[in-house]
Amino acid sequence: MASMDELKKAAGVRAADMIKDGMIVGLGTGSTAAHMVNRLAERIKTEGIHVTGVSTSWSTTLQCRSLGIPLKEMGEVSHLDMVIDGADEIDPNRNLIKGRGAAHLLEKIVASMTDNYVIIADSGKAVQQLGTKFAVPLEIIPGAIAVVTERVKKLGGEVKVRMGAPGKDGPVISDSGNLIADAKFAPIADPDKLARDLEHIVGIVGHGLFINMATKVILADEAKGLIEF
Ligand SMILES: O=C[C@H](O)[C@H](O)[C@H](O)COP(=O)(O)O
């Protein structure tokens, strides 16, 4: 029986093998994206392909540096040939919840730079409706936490500031210096509307709903192998 990690690796390897020589590629964050980055490094070494990455977090940047993957700064580019990333929930329309690792704001900026956005995951991430298992991660300007909590409540969500244990006392602070919180909604009937409503709340600089962004999903399933849609 394949472990969860083996399934994530299968999806990561499949996506890394889609990268072509000469591409500039956005590299996501998380345990599944890490497998993709490892495979990309292996291809750069063994096949001699020239690929430049754009990282979505300090975590991925450090991994790329240790593996010798050349990187460009996010602020230097406005178009990417491809972006590959993991997700926390994926619905049948390829809408996503992302941000378990607090990287969703930078991941969304990078994802907005491509029309080739590939999501990789084990099949346990597939849901019929977003919000089934996960809360919606928010990135919030610290001084706006009280007003954001009130406004999100009016939309039916319960906001909890995410705590940094075991590696840090107090709240999780994003790579951009903002507070991370999670807003729990009942399964989300209209994710597109909720995404727009959250964008209208001053003080929220990013949320983990990724609507109509992914162009391909690769799911690794124990019984069915790789599923693409
Ligand atoms: O902030 C983290 C990201 O959105 C991740 O891509 C997402 O949480 C999936 O991570 P993993 O592949 O570790 O489940």
TrEMBL record:
Its EC number is 5.3.1.6. Gene3D superfamilies: 3.30.70.260, 3.40.50.1360. InterPro entries: NagB/RpiA_transferase-like, Ribose5P_isomerase_typA_subgr, Ribose5P_isomerase_type_A. GO terms for biological process: D-ribose metabolic process; pentose-phosphate shunt, non-oxidative branch. SUPFAM superfamilies: D-ribose-5-phosphate isomerase (RpiA), lid domain, NagB/RpiA/CoA transferase-like. The keyword Repeat does not apply. Pfam families: Rib_5-P_isom_A. This is Ribose-5-phosphate isomerase A. The gene is rpiA.
